[in-house]
Amino acid sequence: MNNIGVRKYNLYLAIGLLFIFIIFIFNIENIKSTYSNESTTFSSAAALAKAGIPVGYKKPPPPPEQQPSGTNSLVNSKQTIKPTTKNSGSGSGGITGLATSLLSYDNEEEEVPIIKTEHRIFNKEEYIDDLYKYTKIIYKQPNLLKTIHSSSSKPTILILSTISKHLPYGPDRTIADFIKTINSLIYDITKNQPQDTSKTSSGGPSNYKFSLGLSINSPSEFEELQKFIEINDVKFFKRFDKITLLSSPEMENQHEIKFENDITEEVELNRDNRHDDHKQRVRRRIIAKNRNFLISNSLEIEQFTLFLDSDIVKFDNSLNFIDILVNSNKDIIVPRIKRGDFITDYDRNSWKGLRTKPNEEQLAIMDSNVWSKFDYVPQDIPGSTWHFADFDSNPDSHTEEEKKLNHVVPLDSVGGAVLFFKSIIYKQGVIFPASYLIGTSWERMEGYDGIETEGVCYLAKPLGYSCWGMPNLNAYHVA
Known about the structure:
With 479 residues, the protein is an alpha+beta fold.
């Protein structure tokens, strides 16, 4: 090799070594940055531990493009999950000073803390939607964050209730009384221990996994509900894997369409006037909106959904009430609702047969959309409309099958005081109609029948699902 070749060789070698050196220096900086970030995270956790606040972490969800199909994450580009920043156990105050600053963040990529209350650890996620004015809170047990659920494991039941603003639990009752009613379905409240499964048909409540979803649109009551759950967290998490709380004062608005030939006015609703005929359109529209809003924000993987009105006080056969509903294998089911000692069929929205229709004058009012003058309410047709009370007309003629606790009868409409659903039906688009479906047209704002729970069966039937009632299975409304 001549001198020129040697010089070229040395030049190329020097350039190659320089290039390798630059890459090495660049990687050293990245390693330092990574180590620094890990040290910061460790130091934050150590600082919290030193302050007496044990903190665990869950990994943030993957970016939207990396999420598996079918996942339902609270986090996206327009949402922020706020971490719990207070100790929710009673008598222990809040997290202040350094701990608060360590737990506050705006970057959705940071890890969400799991806060230990006075009693035990649970995960609390809070989402506040400033655009649509609602708040959603989810409590989950940390051991569920990494759990892989399978349909072959215990069946899952979601218990739901929309709690109104006006004496929602009935006179002289509180949220504690209603929770006790719910617990009677899944726990032996008389012995404070799991129910005796030997008395049930297929394992009783221990055979199921339960979640709870509650909505209450009074801000002050919503705060009280959170406090109640967090103070009683041990008791709740013996019973429920997940608790969803929802509050949306906007859901109470009437949102009536204003027509130029009509006068619209807000209808004041309370516990005393809620059954007045001229208030039913507005009242049941609001109930339907709230039911749909709660379902869409609470239902995830639960296979069955049980709606309870907050003024339901007890159940006959509570030890196997859930078993009877699930094992019926019916799509949509309601029990009989009794009230006090004399009303044996309180929820008259459960029926089958025919009902009345508006006369020509009433139809003309509907066609002109003068809804302030329309106070029509569908009525039974004697001899053509069947209710649970009609089942009692001749009990001596009942067959042995008709006397069974799980005996079912077909229904065209269901009530909502206690309403059991296969959740897959909701997921296919069946909702609680927020307007009257029957008798509507393009010219009319709505029809004259089939609103809220009374429209559910109408929507479910074309999808191949049917509604049923159990006249021998009783639940009780507050007297």
